[in-house]
Amino acid sequence: MPQLTLRFRIRQDGLVEESVEGVSGQTCNELTKTLEDALGVVQQKQPTAEAFVQPKTQTLSNPAEIH
After folding, report:
1. Total structural domains in the chain?
2. Is residue 66 in a domain?
3. CA 21/CA 24 separation, integer angstroms
4. Residue 15 domain flag
5. Residue 17: which domain range?
6. Are 11 and 17 in contact (CB under 8 A)?
7. Backbone φ/ψ region at 25: left (φ over 0), alpha (ψ -120 to 50), beta
8. What is the mean pLDDT of the chain?
9. Partners of 5 in beta bridges
10. Does any domain span residue 34?
11. Helix/strand number for the chain, H first, E second
């Protein structure tokens, strides 16, 4: 499992910059929504390359056999 990293930078003017590493697709938005709501108004979002990677899904098939 890849490492998940949340980084915060609080600037002198009070703005908070947040970056997320190790999360692909829209999971990042879901992960940070509650925190962003608590911090206040989000002024800007800048997706990284990881935001456009689709999470891998695995489908299992079990063919039915009738004897």
Report:
1. 1
2. no
3. 8
4. yes
5. 5-51
6. yes
7. left
8. 81
9. 21
10. yes
11. 1, 2
